[in-house]
Structure formats: structure tokens, C-alpha cells
Amino acid sequence: MEQPLIETDILIIGAGPVGLFAVFEAGLLKMRCQVLDILPQPGGQLTEIYPKKPIYDIPGCPGVLAGDLVQNLLRQIEPFNPGFTLGERAETLEKQADGRWKVVTDRGTVLLAPVIFVAGGLGCFDTRKPPIENIDQFEDKGVEYFVRNPDLYRDKRVVIAGGGDSALDWTIYLSNVARELTLIHRRTEFRGALDSVEKVQHLAQTGKIKLITNAQVTGLSGNGHLDGLQILHDTDGEFHLPTDHFVPLFGLTPKLGPIGEWGLQVDKGAIEVNTFDYSTNVPGIFAIGDINTYPGKLKLILCGFHEATLACQSAFNVVNPGKKLSFKYTTVTGIEGLAAS
Amino acid sequence: MISITVIDRDDQPHVLETPTDMGLNLMEVCKSYELPVKGTCGGMALCASCHVYVLSQHELPEATDDEIAMLDQAFFVKTNSRLGCQIKIHDALDGLEVKLAPEAE
User: Is the Cβ pair B46, A49 closer than 8 Å?
Assistant: First the structure.
């Protein structure tokens, strides 16, 4: 099957506020952008983690909800018609014979651009793995960190761990699919939606599922494929529970991910840049926002906006070799499609 | 100024002299002393990288729903687990003793 191929001037990895604002600054210089993000919606942390939290240090905005800031940024960049590749993670980076960069995502989308802006924030959100010693060796051999295909669990013994909405929702759903379903949670209280909590408690009372609270999974056993769990109960001590599948659902955590393997200079999980233009050690690749580091770095959205702006000036020279860049104020040129209110 | 003892992950105690008039929280104090506390989310109770065990008997404010929800997703959680970012530094915490929880991921 032919994989989609997208060509652009600047490939922006990360659709958080800084990545989005980079589209605006690039647009002023007539550069097209494609924005790639592992999350299914733009906004990064602001949308995913704290949409309802007010931010007070955006110049000119005396208090704006994170979610609203993202909506405003999307409106601001709309005239430049950026492309979005969402729900995909940048995996590999390769230099093309024509000098452009080729990035391939985990879904096989191919992106070609002379310039890359890494605006990855804290990194890409990945499932949180419980620190159980041998868990790596059972991945996809009985341990799954999210439910991809519910049919996998048909007529199987399944143990879900966690106390949030996804643990509760999948417990309810898979109680009709699995042969035996057990939910394990560290506490007796659940923090998911009340309706789901009541449903799970009802399933437990009627014997449809087994509910083990005040307990944690501490070990995995099996020969090639998972066949049981070691469980530590707060008062009853340790016991063994046979199972075919273990699905730990502990939310998402940000990790640098495959970008860490791209040959960029990294210091404590952040990409080192030159503050002249936020370029990295790899020509044509810039890093802006929370993912970069330099002397005096502050992880602030407003600093990321500044970084994006300066990075665009140098990006122009890579995208348009030999062309002269003349600086213009938006008050002079205006922006088609944006009306001031 | 008050003093707080933080035991690191190698069981080394660190006595931190801490001002009480700067609106600091325990995560920020640990970071300012360059202890290995990431504080990834900046103090919004959203990452658990400042997870500590409270060893002394100081009275601390009740954990908020946000903090409890985060601890639900964290690992190595015990009954005395708290997020450092949710512990505001004030005079009554003089002599507080905490231990850094193991790092997860």
C-alpha cells in the first residue's frame, strides 16, 4: 500500500502552543508548515493535561484558560492553512539526496521538509509502565498497556490494574468479553466517574468480576507467555493469581521518545540549542519551547513564542536559499483572513 | 527560615535551610538544592516526579482530589505518600523529614 507523502517547508513536531505559534511566524515569512503530534488533538499539555487551568503570564492576556489559549492560537494560524498529522509519532529521521529531511511516523506517513522544528514539550505522551522487574519480557505476551483490540481478551482470564476512568471503563466493557475479569486497585476508593464506579461495584457484587482493592501487582510469571501475577495485599500479604492477560492502566507520562535517537545533543532530556536562532547541532533542525535547553532557559510559553519567532528567521534562509529576508510588522502588512476586533 | 530534612534515594540525609516567606513548596525547595527531583509538571500535581514519603509527624494539609488522583497513577505509593509540590513551606513545618520515593520511568 502506498503510504501518504506530505511535503512542506517546515515540519513542526509537537502541536503545543509553541509549535502552533511557529506556524504563525513561519506564515508571515510565507513558509508552509505541517504540524505532527502523537496526541489526537492540537494543544499539547494545555489540551491534554490542564485545559481548565488559567494561565496568567501570556502578555496581553490577563488570565486565559489553557484550552482557550489553544483555540485562540488555532484561530490565529488559520489564515496560513497549516497541515496537521495527528495521533502519529515521529519515528525515524533521514537526510534525503536533495538535502531535505525525511521523517516517517509510526503509522508510516512520510513527511519531507528542508527544516524541522522540534517543539515536543515534555516529549511524547506514552503509557505509564508499572515498575515491575520483568514486565518488559511479557510485553505483547500477555501484558498490554492499553486495549487495542478487545477481541484479544475473548474467553481469556484478564486482570486490569488502575483506579481511573480508563481502568473502570475497560473493566465494564471487558466483563462481557473475558472469561474471568479481575480489577486490582491500590485503594478502596475510585476516582473515575461516579456512574462507572457504581457499575463496577455492581459487577463485583453480582459476581461478574472480581474486585481486589488495597493491593498492587508486584511480579509476573510465565514461560514465554504470561500465566500469573504476584499480588501484594495491604493486609493479607502476597498471593498468586493465574491469568492470561495483564492490562495496567495508569495514565500517560511524557517521554522524549525516538527523537532522542536522532543525533541531537541532549542534556538531561532536553535538546541543546544555540540561542542565536534555537538551532540544534544538526543543520536544519531547530528545537523550541520546553524541549530545548540553554543557559538561562525558562520553561515558559511566552519564551517559547520568542524562540519560535527567531527560529523562523534562520529557517527562512534554509527554505529559500539566496533569497533576502526583509522584516515587516504585521501592523504594516496585515494578515488576510484575520480581522482585529 | 526553617530547616527540613530530605533523605535522598541513596539514603543520604540533606538538611535544607528554607525561607518561609517566598511561597515555596517542597518540590521547589528540593530543586533549588539540586536534589534529584524533576518537578516535570511545574507543580500542578500532574506528574508525581516529586513523590515523597513523609517520615515526621507534622500536620500537613489534606491532599486535594488532584493530588489523590495523581498518586493513584503513581507507583511505590504508601500510606505516607505525598506530592512535594503540594506541600507549602511555612513555619510549622520546621523539622519536617521526608524521603524521596523511587523514580518510576
Answer: yes
